[in-house]
Specification:
InterPro entries: Acyl_CoA_acyltransferase (IPR016181), GNAT_dom (IPR000182), Rv0428c-like_C (IPR056935). It comes from Motilibacter rhizosphaerae. GO terms for molecular function: acyltransferase activity, transferring groups other than amino-acyl groups. Keywords: Transferase. It holds the Pfam family Rv0428c_C. By secondary structure, this protein is an alpha+beta fold. The chain has 2 domains: 93 residues, no CATH class; 137 residues, Aminopeptidase. It is 34% helix and 32% strand. The chain contains 8 helices and 12 strands. The strands form 2 sheets. Strands 4, 5, 6, 7, 8, 9, 10, 11 and 12 form a 9-stranded mixed β-sheet that branches. The protein has a 3-stranded antiparallel β-sheet with strand order 1-2-3, covered by helices on one side. A hairpin with a 2-residue loop joins strand 8 and strand 9. The radius of gyration is 18 Å and the shape is globular. The two termini are 33 Å apart.
Amino acid sequence: MTADRLDLLAHHGWPALEVVERDGWLLRFAGGVTQRANSALPLTVPRAGVPRALEAVVEAYAARGLPPLVQVSGASPSGLADELSSQGWSPGDVAVAEVADVALVAAEAAGVELSAVPSQEWLDLWWSVDGRGGDAELEVARRILTGCPSVYALARDGGGPVAVGRLALVEGWGGAYCLAVRSGARRQGHGTRVLRALAAAGRDAGAERLWLQVLEHNAPARAAYERLGFAPVDSYRYWRLG
C-alpha cells in the first residue's frame, strides 16, 4: 500500500460535493463541513511550482468563503510542509492511516443492524458524538456520506442505539468512517462489534482490505484497532493559513 494510493482511496471514500482539479491538485469543497471535504489534496509537484499552487488554493477557497486547508501526507510533494510553514500556515493534529486484511477483522456481531443508507437514528447518534453544526451542516454531511457506495452499521444494547459506523466501498477496499459510541456506553466493546460487522459486510461485498484513520494522540483507539490487526502505513495532517 502506497501513501498516494491511500490518499485517493480516502478521497473517494469521503467525497466532497465539489472537486476542482488545478494543476495536479484536487481542491475539494463542501460548505466547510469536515476538513477532508474542504481541503486541497496535492497529488503532484505543479508545473508552476508549489508557491503558485498555494496562491491558487487561497484564491479558490476565499472565493467560496472557506478557510484554505491543505492535506499533507507522505505522498505530498517534497518540501511542501516547509513551504507552508514559511508562508505562515499552521499544522493541525497528526492522523495515522492504518490498514488491515478484511479476514482479520470480519466477524458476525450480534445486535448490529446493517443498511445501505444511514437512518435518521444512525445520523442522530453519529452527529451527537462527532457533529459540528446544526441541521444545515448535517444535511451536507449526509450528502457526503452517501456520495459513494457504503454500508452503515448501528449497534443496540437493550434496544437503544449505542454505536454506529460506516464502511465506504472503494475499488476492492473498505474504508471505516464515523465510528462513534454514545457517551456512557464506551469501553464496552460496542465499537469493536460495529467494526467487525462492517468488515464482514465489506468482505461479502468483495472488499479484501480495510483502511481507517485515527488521531495519533488517541492511544486507546489505536491500540484497539491494532489488536484487531490494523497496522499504520502513513500519516497526514491539515495545514490552515493563519
